[in-house]
Amino acid sequence: MYMAHTMLRREFDLLPQLVRDVRTDDTGRSEVVGAHAEFVCGILHLHHEGEDVVLWPLLHERGGAEAEEIVPVMEEQHHAIEAANAEATRLLPGWRSTARGGNELTEAFDRLRAALLEHMAMEEQRILPLAEKYVTAAEWRRLGEHGLEKSPKKTLPLAFGMAMYEGDPEVVRAVLAEAPLPARLIMPVLARRLYAKHAKRVHGTPTPPRATG
Hints:
- By secondary structure, the protein is mainly alpha-helical.
- The protein has a single domain, classed as nmb1532 protein domain like (Four Helix Bundle (Hemerythrin (Met), subunit A)).
- It is 83% helix and 0% strand.
- It has eight helices and no strands.
- The longest helix has 36 residues, at 27-62.
- The protein starts with a helix and ends in a 10-residue tail after the last helix.
């Protein structure tokens, strides 16, 4: 969860300025930034969908008063974040194809970023301790499996490289532990290279600024 949140913090921290920096009518650049924005918005959607489907029902069932104090807040925040995400992705295709209307899109991403940062901080403080008490390791793995099942297979190495960029090596090894041997050997190298190439194209450097907060 921390690895996923760090990746989301970094990419959504950088995204509004990426849009601001695209010159009007520079459709080559708006296509690059727009494709990246669509990708990270999709990752966010699947990340939260997994929690909606897997985590919240388990905590409602087992967590008693502890869970009922905070889980409804998390669910409410998810609805707000999903609405902000939907608004940004609604505006995205028009800007991506024309490089016009960037101010409105930037404001949408600023709102999405603010809601997301507040939510992730609260989730780390309040939900992870509950999950440790009430959710088994096998059930927790289902969160990751949800994203794997729903994601296009061709995008998984890049998404993993995006998470690996600031990920704890021990966590990366744990995530790969149950993968087939070829994937365990190839994925760390392939994913790292794919994200470096992607970051160079999107951020202008293979080593973009790290997450804050």
